[in-house]
Amino acid sequence: MDGNIFAILGKAARLLREDGQPDQAAEMTRQVFRSHSYESALSIISEYVETELSPHISKKESRGRTIEQKIPRHRHFSPRVSLAPPHPSPTGHWGNGAPGRLGRFVQSENNLSQEGNCWIFQSAIAAEDAVVAGDAKICDLAVIRGSALVSGNAVIRNRSLVEDRAIVMAGVVEEDSQIAGNARITENLLSQKAPIVAAACVYGEISGNIRLFPAAVVLPGQSVHNSTPDTIQLYHDHAEVVRPHDRSTPTLKPPENWNPHPKRENLHRGEER
Known about the structure:
UDP N-Acetylglucosamine Acyltransferase, domain 1
């Protein structure tokens, strides 16, 4: 088993659930996410199941329970590599396809999490220590490599590349885009919108309703966060803001019975009394 900790955690949690121990799987996951190092996380997982990276033991004591189930060396976890066409259906939903075997599009079974509804569609590539997780989809000759993470509901397609330590948690990356370095692409929590990157490069951080057009570049250290419903459009040489129709400046008109001199009218009425 390769040593990607997220892949090991996902397989161990699934194994515990299959063994009728969902509470232990949840507890193990919480502890791993609180750990501060790879060694600590692996030690926690080894308290619940035996992995190829753990010392060889026949039984493990876990919170008062004996777990005899372990991850044997010959066990094959088939990642979900779709053999279906790598395009969404006309209704906009991704076809489920059929879970496939570990094939030439995935370097290691650790490249695809067994949790969530993530898919690596035919002709896409996941290699090295990169991970596809959550409900993410990669297709159409897209490549993720290095230590990149594609998760959430992100879609990577059309020959785009995600590499190095980049993290894409939402939005669409398409048309030969390059996401590299310590790039971060996320959904904005306030607007609940995510970026669309087309034929552009991102090395910094972007979130919210942002569109990158061909040749646009977000440099390392740059951050563009948009919490509004307006669309920030980034081009190679300038930026624009597109406001939705319902946010356009309204034309204010007084009501039909509006009196421009209410105080004078009240005084007049008082005199009549």
